[in-house]
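Predict the assembly for these two chains.
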Amino acid sequence: MNPYRRSPAIILASSLVYLFLYAPIFVLILYSFNASRTNIIFAGFITNFEPRPTLQAGLVTASPCGPFHWFCELSHNREVMSAARNTLTIAVISTIVSTVIGTMAALALQRYEFKLKPFTQVSLYIPIVIPEIVMGIGILTLFSQLFGVLNEALKLQADSRLTLGLGTVIVSHIAFSIPFVTLIVQARLQGFDKSFEEAAMDLGANEWTTFRRVTFPMLLPGILSGCLLAFTLSLDDFVITFFTNGPGSTTLPIYLYGLLRRIITPQVNALSTVWIAIVFVAVLLIQQSQNRKV
Amino acid sequence: MSMLQKLRENRSSQGTLLALPTTFWMVALLVLPLLLTTVISFGKRSPDGEVIYTFTLNNYIRLAGFDPNCPPADGTCFNPLYLQILGRSLSLAFNTTVLVILMAYPLAYFIARSHPRKRNTYLFLVLIPLWTNFVIRVYAWMMLLRKEGVINNLLGLLAGWIGYDFKPLEMLYTQGAVLVGMVYEFLPFMILPIFTSLEKIDNSLYEAAADLGANPIRTFRRVTLPLSLPGVVAGTILVFIPVMGTFIVSDILGGRQVILVGNLIQRQFLDARDPTFGSAASLILMIMTLVVTYFYTRKFGFGEEIVAA
């Protein structure tokens, strides 16, 4: 019997689900090449190259970038570039911090006995079982109350007043990333052969050398996948950022959301297409690197 | 003995120290905000939108549909608006979860039973929409469902061919649009855990079932379904909880027509400026999701697959 036999009904149903998943993405990408500025009907591609963009009755007929007109416009858009910079800054800092302290906590929870252990362990599950919006408004309330008190007590004026901004977003991103890093590294530590570390100790290595030469290299794949997850979660986050960002700390998802409530040009589609392309390449690379390991 | 030496010998303090930053972060940004939300929900709002710390049940009374300034015995002030919003969110989350299971299961089965060499490609195709930003995916549906959108255009073309007089359908800003958007957003979160549990099923079980004369339907009911249940349970948790709290989908695809708890809470913090009422609503939201999750997992168990996803 062929173990890979699937009934035609299953194949048909799966194809329809794949169609459902990809039709919207296809339309989104197609419209990022739209010649129509209003972006309501697909008016064809921009085929002519000219040093200056030409507009005729709402249609872009020629552009220095040809069909990639909207992508070029995007790269000249100051707001997009600053949002992209914020998004990356937040993701890089929160990933580094959460990876380091999340890994430390995983080691502590798996290898040590201490009083606060059950509490720390349980607190890691909070972000999984509680809707993100509850966390978001909680953090917003905390910051606004805290800043209110501090601004009052320290008599801070104008520019030096504490407000929501990059700092509050980063601190909050660290908070929701830590549990994922810790739980992944912990899972890796659980399926760990302790005899390697015992052998190192028997051979005279002290605890620090054992950690550096044995434990850490064996943990590295776990730490890296935790790090990668923290990075993508931060890049992708909307809800927590929505409640903790302030003037000057807009990220790409927040910027995009703002655009959707205003006028929509094919630039929004171009931005989405770039994002999807990056996701495509990233997932491809991750999958390939995982295959090689197995 | 110096401090450092003491530390070197005391493993309990070492553990505490290693876990300290994480414990601090969890307390400061998860536990404390939740406590603060609880405290504030019993407070009231000053005329300029500031929080006044006091103890009153007014916010909860308002959520239940009564006006605190109205004599409760008289029933004329009863307005079930907020109860309707809560009910709508619950039923939408329920419908989304059911639809997502019905769509995810065949696809997960298809991937799990495909040739190992092709399996990665099929999985890859699920991961792309999963990792594409949430806001982008809502936007895609906005383009499709608009009055001048892609679906109406295609239907118009089709109608033109068969000579039928076509009026564009109003699809955006309806309950249906929000349901479709939610299903689209959360479908991948169901496919992955179900796939993980289906993949674990040993092929010999299917062979044994066939050898013993079970037909495909019986095999599915007695072998496949029970063994894949942990995946369905994990997927349900991953879908149900976020759907309950999401506000972007209803905001963009539902407009002002479909208001969910998430929108109610968001507006209290941004437009209406009543954080105390918003806190009460979010506490109710949290309790609702915890209660549903608790009874659900008690009945079906908590799948390990939740971590795998």
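The CA atoms of residues 21 and 27 of chain B lie 10 Å apart. The first strand of chain B starts at residue 44 and ends at 45.
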